[in-house]
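[audit] Reproducing an earlier prediction to check determinism. Same input, same settings, fresh worker. If the tokens differ from the archived copy the diff job will pick it up downstream; this log only records the rerun itself.
[audit] input (279 residues):
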Amino acid sequence: MSEVLRVLDMLAWFPENISTFGGELDALFNIIYYISVAIFFLTFGILIYFLIKYRFNPNRKGYNYHGNNIVEITWTILPTILFAAIGVYSDDIWEETKYSSRVPKPDVEILVLGKTYGWYFLYPGADGKFGRNAFTDRSARALMSTTNPFGIDSSDAASADDFTTENQFRVPVNANIVMRGSSIDVLHSFFLPNMRVKQDVVPGTWMNIWYNAFKTGKFELACAELCGGGHYAMRAEYQVVSASDYDAWLDQKNGEVKAAREASVPPADTAAAAVASLR
């Protein structure tokens, strides 16, 4: 019997869980799965029994049957009770993972945008906060373009140190990660199998996505919504790293942003010469 259950155990086929709430979701899936398996075998067992018992017999005459109220009421009430019980049981984990009122205080906040066929990520810079963009100010959506997907306002000093990555992102282990997800073009689905996270991202709105990973490593992000001919290739990689490695990576990125910003500002003597040439 144990070998049969091992073969039927769908969780063995799941990606490794690395999320703090993943165990509760897996347990819920397990309950629903085994209830479904039991109903499947019960239903088809009865079907096969009746197929054999009432197979064609030239010596048996068929008769009309107009139903049974008790049986019909029973198969209506029992599923209702079952679904209600599952709903009550799953309500807490649903709230924990989907209700906006349960969004944890973020240790790290990241913006994510789906596009055909890839992902953009925006991190706050050294100041630890986002400047003006399409998330922080809805009117900044007018600034969104293929070269500025987040609608970053370059005239806002707080935006100067924000940086983006494409098709890859990093988060620290044992930290509350809150992502704000949207889409540039069509409906996409932000799917982190190992985190047990799946959230549709919709153009024109920002969806809350949150999780906390307890294991480091490299993992896959996929789009779980058919979004066009290149849907199969809409994948990305993310890394869960130690807090020290994450801080070092942030320092590296902030240094790159600072260097790029300084390189874009002409030296004082060059600027003075340019002004003099206009006199």
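[audit] rerun output stored. Observation attached for the diff report: The radius of gyration is 28 Å.
[audit] end
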